[in-house]
């Protein structure tokens, strides 16, 4: 096609901004091959390239009013959109692959040493038993009801037949003593 017969793409894009469907159709006919070619060079995948090209022309139709022929050429404006959309698609695909990889890694079963876990739990239980042995019988009863029995302070007081204040004091004193014995710092 020689330059004399080629339509003015800038004019077609300006007319497209006014809603001129015929101008847009002509603009599409004269630019689609170059737009698709650029996108295919970036994306490689034919199906994705066609989707992106469709998005580019939809964006050109919807945002043609932002084109200013005093600032650049219509072909440059459209090709810039095409390149940006293609790069966005690559980034989105990469982000999706990265998310899938992260989820896959997260869902992999982790190595679990059941013997070591059992030994640790047993050793910790023994430490707690030794620490519990240092408590008075009244403190041990209150702690056993509250922490092993799951009772509230009020329920501990009712179970032991003591005032609530006394139950609270026994539990507080027992916890202080257990922290000291187990070497726990706040």
Automatic annotation (TrEMBL):
Keyword Flavoprotein: no
Matches recorded under InterPro entries: RNA_pol_sigma-70-like, RNA_pol_sigma-70_dom, RNA_pol_sigma70_r2, RNA_pol_sigma70_r4, RNA_pol_sigma_r2, RNA_pol_sigma_r3/r4-like, WH-like_DNA-bd_sf
Superkingdom as given in the UniProt entry: Bacteria
Single GO MF descriptor: sigma factor activity
Pfam family, one: Sigma70_r4
RNA polymerase sigma-70 region domain location: 27-94, 131-180
Alphabetically ordered keywords of this record: DNA-binding, Sigma factor, Transcription, Transcription regulation
SUPFAM superfamilies on file: Sigma2 domain of RNA polymerase sigma factors, Sigma3 and sigma4 domains of RNA polymerase sigma factors
Record GO biological process: DNA-templated transcription initiation
PANTHER family: ECF RNA POLYMERASE SIGMA FACTOR SIGK, RNA POLYMERASE ECF-TYPE SIGMA FACTO
Family listed: Belongs to the sigma-70 factor family. ECF subfamily.
Protein name as catalogued: RNA polymerase sigma-70 factor (ECF subfamily)
Species: Leifsonia aquatica (Corynebacterium aquaticum)
């Amino acid at each position: 096609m020689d330059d004399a017969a080629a339509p003015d793409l800038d004019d077609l894009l300006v007319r497209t901004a006014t809603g001129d469907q015929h101008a847009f159709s002509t603009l599409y006919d004269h630019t689609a091959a170059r737009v698709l070619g650029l996108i295919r060079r970036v994306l490689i995948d034919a199906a994705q390239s066609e989707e992106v090209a469709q998005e580019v022309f939809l964006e050109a139709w919807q945002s043609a009013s932002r084109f200013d022929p005093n600032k650049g050429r219509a072909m440059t404006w459209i090709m810039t959109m095409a390149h940006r959309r293609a790069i966005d698609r690559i980034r989105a695909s990469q982000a999706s692959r990265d998310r899938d990889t992260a989820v896959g890694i997260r869902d992999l079963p982790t190595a679990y040493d059941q013997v070591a876990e059992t030994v640790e739990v047993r050793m910790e239980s023994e430490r707690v038993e030794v620490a519990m042995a240092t408590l008075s019988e009244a403190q041990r009863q209150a702690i056993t009801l509250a922490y092993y029995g799951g009772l509230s302070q009020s329920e501990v007081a009712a179970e032991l037949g003591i005032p609530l204040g006394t139950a609270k004091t026994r539990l507080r004193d027992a916890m202080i003593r257990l922290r000291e014995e187990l070497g726990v710092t706040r």
